[in-house]
Design a protein that fits this description.
The protein is mainly α. Helices cover about 85% and strands about 0% of the residues. It has one domain (about 10-145).
C-alpha cells in the first residue's frame, strides 16, 4: 500500500491531479449550473443532479482523456469508456446520495445548500476518482502511450 501511495506523490501525478482539478472545477460549474437550471424547470432535486451529471460526465471523459492524461481522443475504446462511466456512476450515486442525505437532515434545501452538498461530495471523492482514472480507466492507454514514446526515443 505504501508503494502505491508513493505513485500518487510525484511530479507527473501532481500535474495530472492539478489538471484533473481544473477540469473537475470546470465540470462542477457546468454540472451545478445545469442541475440548478433543471431544478428551476421543476425537476426533482435527484433528477436534476442526475441529468446534469450525465452531461458533465461526457464532457469530463473527453477533457480528461485529452488533457489530463494526454491521450488522443481517437484512441478511446469500449473498455476504457465503460470503465470511465462505471467510476463516474459510482461517484454520481454518491453525490446523489449525499444530496438526498443533506435534504433528509436539513429539510428542504435552499439553492445554496443544494449546491453546497454537491461541492462537498465532489471534494470527498476527488482523490479516489483520480486514482481510478489513472489506474483503471486509462491504464492500458497510458501504458501504450508510454511504450510509443519510449520506442520513439530509442530510435
Amino acid at each position: 500500500m505504501r508503494n502505491y501511495l508513493k505513485t500518487l506523490v510525484n511530479r507527473e501525478a501532481f500535474i495530472q491531479m492539478v489538471k484533473l482539478g481544473f477540469i473537475g472545477g470546470f465540470n462542477t460549474v457546468v454540472t451545478l449550473g445545469l442541475s440548478l437550471l433543471f431544478r428551476k424547470l421543476g425537476l426533482l432535486d435527484e433528477l436534476s443532479v442526475a441529468f446534469a451529471w450525465v452531461i458533465g460526465t461526457l464532457l469530463s471523459y473527453f477533457l480528461n482523456r485529452r488533457w489530463t492524461f494526454a491521450l488522443e481522443t481517437s484512441g478511446a475504446n469500449v473498455r476504457e469508456t465503460s470503465h470511465f462511466f462505471v467510476v463516474n456512476i459510482v461517484a454520481g450515486f454518491l453525490t446523489v446520495g449525499f444530496v438526498f442525505l443533506a435534504g433528509r437532515l436539513r429539510g428542504d434545501l435552499s439553492d445554496v445548500e443544494f449546491l453546497g452538498a454537491q461541492i462537498v461530495a465532489a471534494a470527498i471523492i476527488v482523490i479516489p476518482k483520480f486514482a481510478a482514472y489513472r489506474d483503471v480507466v486509462f491504464k492500458r492507454s497510458l501504458s501504450k502511450a508510454k511504450r510509443v514514446v519510449s520506442d520513439a526515443s530509442e530510435s
